[in-house]
Amino acid sequence: MARPSTDRIAAALRSPVTFSVLAGLVIGALFLVGTGADPFAAYGAVVTGSLGADGIGATLSTGTSVLGMALALAIPLRAGLINLGGDGQMVLGGIAAAVTGLYSPLPAPLTVVLALLAGITAGAAYAALAALCENRFGVPLLVSSLLLSYPATSFASYLVRYPLKEPGSSLPQTGRLPDGVALPAFGTSTVTFGLVLVVLAAAAYWFADRRTAIGYEIRMTGLNPRFAAYAGVERKGLTLRLMATSGALAGLVGAIGVLSFPYRFLDGSLTAPGYTWTGLTAALLAAAAPLGTVLASFFFAVLQVGGLSMERTTEVPRELTQVLQAIVIVFLAARLSFPRRRRKTAQEPITQGEFV
Amino acid sequence: MFFDSDLLMSALRALTPILFAALGGAVCERAGVFNIGLEGMMLMGCFTAVATSWFTGSPWLGVLAAALAAAAYSLILAVGTVTLRGDAVVLGVAMNLLAVGLTSFLLRTIFGVQGTFDDPSLTGLPLVGGFSPLAYLAWAAVAVAALMLSRHVWGLRLRGVGEAPEAAATLGVSPARYKYAAVLVSGVLCGLAGAQLALGNVTLFSENMTAGRGWIAVVAVMLGRALPFGVLLAALLFGVAEAAGFRLQGLGLPQQATDAAPYVVTLGALFLSTAQRRRRTGRTTGVAS
Fold it and tell me: A185 pairs with which residues across the strands?
């Protein structure tokens, strides 16, 4: 990894990631022109609205959830596994944390720790179930994780509409957590200790990826599953462990969401912002590399929060940021980069990749 | 009587969108293209159908436009996987996300509403003999697809391309051309699925209204082993699950339980079918990075 820095910069500029992000921004600008808005003003509003004094708090609290979900999706992705059930795992984590927070007889600080652990456990168990579906029944992980996600969100929705519903409230939500059962916030902002937790998780992921045998096994499996299997990596066990870790993080995000404002489980409040999909996009953009995932998560958090202020100043719907995210990944998946000698990879059949 | 003709009728009505999308998925599967972008293609079809029907007053033009728009959208998958050799799984997931964002964006820019667009003057598809005309088309499409794949030279070549691309290329059959064709066919079928969903099952567009049906279609392809009649049976299973869910709701079961029913049934069916076969079918989804 000791390349001269100029080479690195040149390589970074030519990388498909840079191309995809720029292409996304250019296409976004075309959309903006199409709706009659000034793209420079709109993008300016995104930056100032998300990084300015009154936006940075929202960016960091959004970033907490996005980074948490991005890590949850990056960890299995590093081994070439895709967990599409993040929503279900996150919501179950949220419900578990809410129930713990409401009914735990322990003092408040202990209850917070317990609620976080309950969220982590619920998410991990549910993701492990999806891994078992693949290992035991041969149902592809992609499909099992996603299909399990729907009943989980329905179940949570049922719980907060009937048995756990706050009496007298018109909203499908649990009662408010008792006083003190909340993650400490920084000053008066909405940024909580949850940010520290996900950053610590990112650091742990970086360390495991770079410095431990298991991290090496995971990377090898992602690069070449057959070689890894030959070298003695036990795939089923790895899948189970990776999915459990992934679900644990998704559950943690759910628990953090419940233990910060609005300090309760409100149906849809965890899934509506689309953290799972933004996180997946960030993980894909970074090819699941630890530091890259952190950067990409921050970038998308900026887009998501900035999208709101863009809507306020230019009247362009904030859904545009969703479009941008997806376009970036479409370009990335299509492996487009700035024109240069395209290296042929040897392992693919020659018959693919011809023009019609 | 819980299982009566009414239940069967509503099951048959519920299965049409899944059947269209799953047929498209089966054609792709046979050509060796892994298509998990069905959901996004369907959603594009839903929006185009509603928008066109609204502006022209003709649901039929809506159906046509939906088929064309979804086919155009499916080109992303064709170009991305066949020509540029990108990762089909990541592309499919990205297409599904893009469709959600794009349709929500267009919903707000064109109709100026968020969430749901439904207007009494939006014209839906008429019923013919208790079914949407598209339902008959879907059943006919099953037969046509089965005949094509087993008898017609195009279908045989398509299968050859899926099973042994090099061999097909040696015989002068262009794999890329057949793969493009398969993806475009799946686009048209998903467009019809979307039109049926938005102008047949209901008459409205709401954000993310496909709600996982495209994924159920992906599972239906697996269950039906990419055979048209197998896919029909798998889609029927889903239709029965959805219809039974509505019936149970009438008997006092909470709506959330019935919402979850189709996914649980689909997953259960997958367990049974793979446990029965005891063959390895799982595709590994390596992410090209």
Answer: A192
